[in-house]
Design a protein that fits this description.
alpha+beta, 2 helices
Length: about 100
Amino acid sequence: MARTCVVTGKGTTAGNNVSHSHKKNRRIWKVNVITKKIFLEDENRWVRVKISTRALRTLRKKGLKVAIKDHGGDLAALTPKKYAGVAPKAKLATA
């Protein structure tokens, strides 16, 4: 899933080119996706995300985490690769 937006989940779409005589030829539409570094203030770190330029406008208005939640995306996409799949350590209770 190389050309997919993290926020909206938009990907490549397929359909038909329709000529004047209504002959149909298959074609694809690719999403305008850019790689952008965004600063998360609450975690005090930079995150590199692949985001569509349309979603970038929404991101400037709402913020990254809120925009992902609104579109039903997964916040796990923001975790660094070295921590992906690693469960957080439980705090030890001292008695």
